[in-house]
Design goal:
single chain; alpha+beta; Jelly Rolls; 2 domains; 4-stranded antiparallel sheet; 9 helices; cNMP-bd_dom; Crp/Fnr family transcriptional regulator
Length: 191
């Protein structure tokens, strides 16, 4: 869990006792491939960190699934709008491989903040991560071609094409898998 130490100590300037307190309250969860961490209609009661494995977030509409995020090793995972509002989520988070996460509940995190305002730095960090990802994705759909969206995805998630199936990446980009194959081929040829 060195990446947690990097976040708490290096990025946020918190002290080791903050990390130790967070870890003492956090819980571990194991998911098997295709198991859901959360499903549409549930209230998200957690924010977590992916220790190993990979997950996807998707929404369903007319029996079709549309991927809207990926969570790889060392990243945050939550249905953030539901977590903040404590209302039902409209998304699903599914493990794409056997996955391990550590998480803290909404109630426990708020207790940490009440006991020590330094934990607001962690809350801001979590908020910033999800806000920036959301803004980049929305702007990319409004301004960029499918090829540019693919390049941004590869920059945001280095090595993702080895981690996630082409079908799921195409869904995230809003294109058909055949179109992604052409984009990848053209990107390879133009290098």
């Amino acid at each position: 869990m060195d990446f947690l130490k990097d976040i708490f100590i290096d990025k946020l300037g918190l002290e080791m006792h903050h990390l130790e307190k967070f870890i003492s309250l956090s819980r571990a969860k194991s998911l098997k491939k295709k198991e859901h961490l959360i499903q549409e209609g549930a209230v998200c009661e957690f924010v977590g960190f992916v220790i190993s494995g990979k997950l996807r977030s998707y929404v369903q509409n007319d029996n079709q699934e549309f991927n809207n995020d990926f969570y790889l090793q060392n990243s945050l995972v939550t249905a953030y709008t539901s977590y903040l509002t404590q209302s039902q989520t409209n998304c699903n988070i599914e493990a794409l491989s056997d996955t391990q996460i550590v998480y803290i509940t909404h109630k426990q995190f708020n207790t940490l903040i009440e006991e020590d305002v330094h934990f607001l730095k962690l809350a801001k960090y979590i908020s910033d991560v999800f806000f920036i990802k959301k803004c980049k994705r929305e702007t990319s759909f409004l301004k960029n071609s499918a090829t540019e969206r693919y390049e941004l995805l590869c920059k945001t998630y280095p090595g993702i094409e080895q981690e996630i199936s082409q079908y799921h990446i195409a869904s995230y980009l809003g294109i058909k898998p055949e179109s992604l194959s052409r984009i990848k081929l053209l990107t390879y040829i133009n290098k």
